[in-house]
Write a structure and sequence with these properties.
By secondary structure, the protein is α/β, with parallel strands linked by helices. The chain folds into 3 domains: about 60 residues, no CATH class; about 210 residues, Endonuclease Chain A (Endonuclease, Chain A, 2-Layer Sandwich); about 160 residues, 2-Layer Sandwich (Endonuclease, Chain A). Helices cover about 50% and strands about 20% of the residues. It has 21 helices and 20 strands. The strands form 3 sheets. The protein has a 16-stranded mixed sheet that branches. Strands 8-15 form a two-stranded parallel ribbon. A two-stranded parallel ribbon has the order 12-18. Helix 8 links the parallel strand 2 and strand 3. The protein is globular.
């Protein structure tokens, strides 16, 4: 044995070289076997490129980030809760579309139901809020009026000077006997340091039950869970009668970052306040996430409150999506609507990195004469995504899509789409691969002429604050910037 160690010591360079080469070849072969299975060709090629260029780094990264799937225990919970919510959803009456609704809209409703969405409900009312601080103030006022329960879920929650009154309202509600439940994404909120810790201490001091969603505990659910699977939803439900959803997180508009404050960066959002039968569906969706983190099944009679106001005229359908579903529900819905559009598509998305099917749907719509416009930010807060989305502007502009750049120093973070004068989709979902595959999202499809008028007013405001990107301007951008955009586009495919 001593002779063997002596030989290895004398020839360690040769042994190390051959060992490295063997491992290198094995990892490349494993990559060719494992990566292409049930994966988009673009994503598979990107991962294979990463593995082939540097297997020692690329393959471990694939093991860490290459599987967009919940671990076993969470998948089992998903199956249980999906069956239960399907049964409970039968207690929500199905609504019929108005007689003047386009025929393709019923197809979209049917598609949503097949993918796991809730029933279409009528007699709803909704209004919009696009002022950041005002929306927080209005949500706070609704909490102060609560009599029975308040259910809160935000991707990012932090207690700072802007949100302090919101949390005080939660504490006051708990002190007067209202049941308050709070969920927040673990990683999304944890990144905000002292204000996140302040929030947790405050909730504890008020005796409010709260849980971090998708906690960073890689092996706690029966298998490894990739750390970037996140719950990106934003929901507030008060007494089962008032529901808020949209794009806004519960944090100051500058996200409590010194660099943002120094640059004057702040976020622009769109939130919807809903009343009517649809609020019961929002409560059901909250209950699924509550069950994941607390293992508590909320009582049906608590969730499905009879709406006090049914005077509204809007049809609404709630569409959840995320890695717990078999199909990419939000992507399927967007594509269905894009192909159905006859006159106009207005899309607002802070992070626009579409897959091939969505890009084809938008380009096809523009080429067949539909007026297509896309609202994005002039500047970005996420380097990779910002440059990746810019790589799509060439083909969009060539097809006739109008691109509006929301002017700096504001980050346009709103997420909504309107199709003709028929339907809108608003919620937490971006139009990027992360929202389609990795994030748990909530989208609301809303029909109604009056609501469409409200949405068009919001689009008019955003258009007035934006400048249009022309094809001539885009073609004059520097060559190094083009190369950077295309490189980031390639990297963004690694999901």
């Amino acid at each position: 044995m001593a002779e063997v160690w002596q030989w290895l010591s004398d020839h360690w360079v040769v042994v190390g070289t051959y060992t490295f080469l063997v491992i290198d070849v094995i990892l490349r072969i494993l990559g060719l076997i494992l990566v292409p299975r049930n994966r988009r060709p673009g994503s598979a090629l990107a991962w294979l490129l990463a593995i082939m260029v540097l297997p020692i780094v690329g393959f471990p990264l694939y093991l860490l980030l290459g599987k967009a799937e919940l671990p076993r225990k969470r998948r089992e919970k998903q199956k249980v809760i999906n069956r239960l919510m399907h049964v409970r959803a039968h207690d929500i009456p199905d609504s019929e579309l108005d007689a003047d609704a386009p025929s393709w809209l019923q197809s979209a409703v049917n598609l949503n139901r097949e993918l796991g969405a809730f029933p279409l409900t009528g007699n709803n009312d909704a209004d919009l809020e696009i002022d950041y601080d005002t929306s927080i103030a209005r949500m706070t006022a609704d909490i102060r009026s609560a009599q029975h329960d308040v259910n809160v879920l935000f991707y990012i929650m932090a207690r700072d000077q802007i949100t302090e009154d919101f949390f005080d309202a939660l504490g006051d509600a708990a002190h007067r006997g209202v049941t308050v439940r709070v969920l927040y994404d673990h990683l999304g909120s944890l990144m905000h340091g002292s204000t996140y810790r302040s929030m947790r201490r405050f909730l504890d001091s008020c005796g409010i039950e709260h849980y971090p969603m998708m906690p960073i505990k890689p092996f706690s659910d029966g298998a490894f869970q990739r750390p970037d699977l996140r719950n990106h939803r934003k929901l507030l439900i008060v007494d089962g009668q008032i529901g808020w959803m949209g794009s806004q997180n519960m944090i100051a508009a500058h996200y409590d970052k010194r660099s943002n404050i120094r640059r004057g960066l702040h976020w622009q959002e769109t939130m919807a306040r809903l009343r009517g039968p649809i609020v019961a569906e929002m409560n059901l969706l909250f209950a699924t996430d509550w069950f994941y983190e607390s293992a508590e099944l909320l009582a049906e009679d608590e969730l499905l409150q009879a709406p006090a106001d049914t005077s509204g005229t809007y049809e609404c359908q709630l569409v959840p999506s995320g890695p717990g579903y078999v199909f990419e529900n939000n992507l399927a819905l967007f594509n269905q609507l894009f192909y159905s559009a006859e006159r106009r598509i207005s899309a607002v998305s802070p992070y626009f990195v579409p897959d091939e099917s969505m890009l084809a749907a938008l380009v096809t719509a523009a080429r067949r004469g539909v007026d297509v416009e896309l609202f994005v930010s002039e500047i970005g807060d996420q380097f990779l995504v910002f440059h990746a989305q810019r790589s799509y502007y060439d083909v969009l502009l060539a097809a006739g899509v109008r691109i509006w750049l929301y002017q700096a120093p504001t980050i346009l973070h709103a997420k909504h789409v309107t199709i003709d004068d028929s339907v809108t989709v608003i919620g937490s979902s971006n139009m990027d691969i992360r929202s389609f595959l990795l994030d748990m999202e909530s989208s609301m499809m809303i029909g109604g002429t009056d609501f469409m008028a409200k949405m068009h007013q919001v689009e008019d405001v955003y258009r007035s604050r934006s400048r249009e990107l022309t094809r001539e301007e885009w073609e004059q951008r520097p060559v190094p910037m083009r190369l950077l955009d295309n490189l980031c586009r390639l990297a963004s495919a690694v999901v």
